[in-house]
């Protein structure tokens, strides 16, 4: 007889999950089990047992930076180069323009397009006819900052609902995975916590990962409470949860609720923007 019979998938997965203490108490013993940890903000101090140089970082800014990046690469952008400051982005684009084609300047400040830039931060602005073959120079309020915060990690990739399964497949076999949520202006946000919870739950289920800190546990609980009660996972349920988050409310207030619904779609994109160079941070 199966002890887990009849339980939703997430709870079956939880039964396989070791308690946090068993991981935290023995940091020096190499583990064959994937350790899954979360920072709900980029500047949260890292779990003591985590070694960034041996860990894959997954950066999350669901609304909207990492959703836009997945869309742009899915639509065959050549590469994405990110900067924290507008001035740095413009200077680098100017430099590139002198030796060849001018890259597209992309991004936002406080959800609004940046004056003089080619593209804002809506996934709808990144169709193939606009971005295919182009270098995109991106700066956003929180997302590109979170990417910079991941600089010391062994591998760095980005995730969103749009490429959730593809990103999960990319971490298969990694000994340690750390999700870094962008948040908004130093505040934890429900939208990034939701994706972190979905990712962590699926890592437990598909990669037999072990939940490694309380921020990961909180994310899993949030995902479970908002979206996982009735399986299969549905995009409308995710859209409702995203619209009921800080980022979702901000975007809806500015007339961009459609972007939120677009970012709630699951597995529409197979591309996983991955850091391939660090100075400047470049994703392909
Ligand atoms: C950010 O990086 O802060 C976000 O992507 C903001 C936005 O949705 O435009």
From TrEMBL:
<comment type="similarity">
    <text>Belongs to the ComB family.</text>
</comment>
<keyword id="KW-0460">Magnesium</keyword>
<dbReference type="InterPro" id="IPR036702">
    <property type="entry name" value="ComB-like_sf"/>
</dbReference>
<dbReference type="InterPro" id="IPR005238">
    <property type="entry name" value="ComB-like"/>
</dbReference>
<dbReference type="GO" id="GO:0050532">
    <property type="term" value="F:2-phosphosulfolactate phosphatase activity"/>
</dbReference>
<dbReference type="GO" id="GO:0000287">
    <property type="term" value="F:magnesium ion binding"/>
</dbReference>
<keyword id="KW-0378">Hydrolase</keyword>
<protein>
    <recommendedName>
        <fullName>Probable 2-phosphosulfolactate phosphatase</fullName>
        <ecNumber>3.1.3.71</ecNumber>
    </recommendedName>
</protein>
<dbReference type="Pfam" id="PF04029">
    <property type="entry name" value="2-ph_phosp"/>
</dbReference>
<dbReference type="GO" id="GO:0050545">
    <property type="term" value="F:sulfopyruvate decarboxylase activity"/>
</dbReference>
């Amino acid at each position: 007889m199966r002890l887990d019979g009849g339980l939703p998938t997430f709870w079956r997965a939880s039964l396989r999950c070791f308690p946090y203490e068993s991981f935290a108490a023995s940091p020096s013993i190499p583990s064959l089990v994937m350790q899954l940890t979360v920072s709900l903000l980029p500047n949260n101090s890292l779990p003591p047992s985590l070694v960034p140089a041996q860990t894959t970082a997954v950066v999350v800014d669901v609304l909207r930076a990492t959703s836009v990046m997945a869309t742009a690469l899915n639509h065959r952008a050549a590469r994405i180069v990110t900067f924290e400051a507008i001035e740095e982005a413009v200077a680098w684009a100017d430099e590139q323009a002198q030796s060849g084609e001018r890259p597209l300047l992309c991004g936002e400040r406080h959800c609004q397009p940046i004056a003089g830039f080619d593209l804002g931060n809506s996934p709808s602005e990144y169709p193939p006819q606009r971005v295919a073959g182009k270098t995109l120079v991106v700066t956003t309020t929180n997302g590109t900052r979170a990417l910079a915060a991941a600089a010391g990690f062994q591998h760095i990739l980005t995730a969103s609902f749009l490429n959730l399964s593809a990103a999960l497949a990319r971490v298969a076999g990694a000994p340690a995975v750390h999700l870094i949520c962008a948040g908004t202006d130093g505040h934890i946000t429900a939208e990034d916590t939701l994706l972190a919870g979905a990712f962590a739950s699926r890592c437990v289920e598909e990669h037999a990962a072990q939940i490694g800190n309380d921020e990961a546990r909180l994310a899993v609980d949030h995902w479970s409470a908002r979206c996982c009660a009735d399986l299969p996972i549905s995009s409308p349920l995710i859209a409702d949860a995203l619209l009921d988050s800080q980022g979702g409310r901000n975007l809806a207030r500015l007339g961009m609720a459609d972007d939120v619904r677009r970012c709630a779609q699951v597995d529409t994109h197979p591309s996983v923007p991955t850091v391939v160079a660090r100075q400047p941070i470049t994703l392909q």
